[in-house]
Amino acid sequence: MGEQAPVAAPRKAPPAPQGKVSAKKPRSVASAKPESHLAMVRRARRINRELAEVYPYAHPELDFRNPFELLVATVLSAQTTDLRVNQTTPALFAAYPTPEDMAAAAPEDLEEIIRPTGFFRAKAKSLLGLSQALRDTFGGEVPGRLDDLVTLPGVGRKTANVVLGNAFGVPGITVDTHFGRLVRRFKWTEQQDPEKVEAEICAIFPKSEWTMLSHRVVFHGRRICHSRRPACGACPIAPLCPSYGEGETDPEKAEKLLKYEKGGQPGQRLTPPPDYPGLPAPPLGAPTEA
């Protein structure tokens, strides 16, 4: 997504708790000697606590009502936005509410529904394959074990962790592009391979924190710590970030870079949780402001 200035909203989202979005005057976390592993772990856990205050409402940004819907939505989310997936899945699940229904779908009909998510032929093939596997191997139910989930067509470790953490309550780290970018900016790891990133981050935090840590970091990456132009001057964890200064440091200019509820814009979910302080996303085809 390109960077956008805040747009007018019908209602104003409440401010973040305790004014956390306003930037503090950062102190440098760099020093003449390298940071020890223990110091990094302490700093990482403090960042997690700070993010928990900024995003107490952090949640998976895919709309779903059951494990099957979350599995399908996560597969569709590859190389597109959660918003576009959320705008597409209402029609998809109305037509194919169960694995048995989707397994029997005509490929061309399935492709036409999921076309807005991109790469629709490959995704349709995965959805048909995983639905047939759920029907034939797992009794029409999504399994709650990672080893079983990764046997499904189109399902890798990242997708499996999303489903386990959010549909089954099994702790897991979800290493998507936002998570990988931020943990490297935070100097928690230098790894590029998602599985190695997952292993190193899991070693830093208690298992009970893994799922919510993933949500908080991804929320921060989407709203403030953007890929091309981070809003450093509006970042609540700037004093703890060794990469402070990679983005816009002027507070007023940085404020204009904030996205979703932080920038007064709609979120990605059409049906967000009750505690989400922002606006629901519009359905597919609804007029939006530029």
* Strand portion: under 5%
Characterize the quaternary organization of these chains.
single chain
The count of strands amounts to: 0
What sort of overall outline do the alpha carbons produce when their principal axes are compared? Answer: globular
Described by strand count, sense and barrel closure, the largest sheet is: none
What are the secondary-structure elements, in order, as H or E? HHHHHHHHHHHH
Alpha-carbon distance between the termini? 12 Å
Indicate the mean pLDDT.
91
Query: What share of residues is helical?
Result: 40-55%
The DSSP helix count reads 12
User: Structural class of the helix and strand makeup?
Assistant: mainly alpha
Radius of gyration using CA atoms only: 20 Å
Please mark out the parts with pLDDT under 50 across 5 or more consecutive residues, or reply none.
1-24
List keywords for this structure.
globular, 12 helices, 290 residues, 43% helix, mainly alpha, disordered N terminus
Short description:
The protein is mostly helical.
Describe the structure.
With 290 residues, this protein is mainly α. It has 12 helices and no strands. α9 crosses α11. The radius of gyration is 20 Å and the shape is globular.
Please specify the SSE layout and strand pairing:
Layout: H1 37-54, H2 67-76, H3 82-95, H4 99-103, H5 107-114, H6 120-137, H7 146-149, H8 157-167, H9 177-185, H10 194-202, H11 210-223, H12 251-255
Helix pairs in contact: 2-8, 5-6, 9-11
